[in-house]
């Protein structure tokens, strides 16, 4: 069957329809400084003031977090074990908080590359919260998009003590004995690029269109 322009357009549009329905994914990368080390975690090459790098990726449409990781300077890394849901609060939809506020919490169980003083696979959490004293971070409880993130300051991210790893040791006299907490020193937010396979597909469509055009001219 001879390839026609109509054939190419119909085929490409039918394949691109699912892509157009996909929501944008956003990746948040940050560097941080350790501010607190639980007694069970001390002496493993990480001290207060040590640096770490973290990131998480989520779908703006569904709020599903597909990637979440932390990497410490001592070589310890932990990655999200399974997708989790992003939690966004806005104004009065803020649970038991006494003041109207905006915030975000992402957390979940992880799989680590090694033990930390005999402990492994901590729960990871990253959050931010800002009271609405002089405005708000965003205007709804939908997962924040790139514009929403443009309203977030570094001070807002470091407001609450919601950034930590917790190794979930039971029956501790102090709940922080198995936690490591940190403050964010820098962060960046960007849309996740489309997979390379999609660009190859689009290139093929354009090439087919070019072939058809040359045949028509001939």
Automatic annotation (TrEMBL):
UniProt signal peptide: 1-23
Transmembrane intervals: 187-211
Keywords associated with the record: Membrane, Signal, Transmembrane, Transmembrane helix
Name recorded for this polypeptide: VPLPA-CTERM sorting domain-containing protein
Organism: Methylomonas koyamae
Lineage: Bacteria, Pseudomonadati, Pseudomonadota, Gammaproteobacteria, Methylococcales
